[in-house]
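Order emerges. For instance:

***
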Amino acid sequence: MRWSDVRLTARQFHPSNYVRYGYNHPVNIEAESLLPLTPATFHILVAVADEDRHGYAVIKDVAARTRGALKLSPGTLYRSIDRMVQQGLIREISTRPARDMDDERRRYYRITAFGREVALAESRRLALMLDLARKKGLAPRKA
C-alpha cells in the first residue's frame, strides 16, 4: 500500500480508518511504522506543535529554528502537508485570526493527537541515535 492510496474518512479523522476504492478498511497504524520521518515532515510537526500556522509561517519558523540550515521550498512544504493531512498527522482548520490580520487565501494547520504521538516517537528515535553516536565518540558529550 502507498500513502497516496490512503484517504481518511470525514467521520473519524485518524489513520486507523481509511477509504480506498470506496470501501472502509480498518488499519492498525502505529506511530513507529511511519519512522524515520523526513526532515521536512519532522520540522513541520515541530512548527505546528505549539500553535496553528499557515504555510508561509511554517517556512519562516523552520528557517528561524534551524538558523537557515533548512529552508523549505513551497513545493516541498505543500507536498509534505498534503501527505501529512492524508496520514492524519496534521489537519487543516477553519478557525482564523482577525480579518485585518489575515489573508483569506491562507490555510491554517494544526497537529493532531496522532501527529504528536509520531513526533514524540521520532524524537525518541533521534535521541537514541545520538546516545549511540556519543558512546562511539561520534558526537559531543552532553554539556
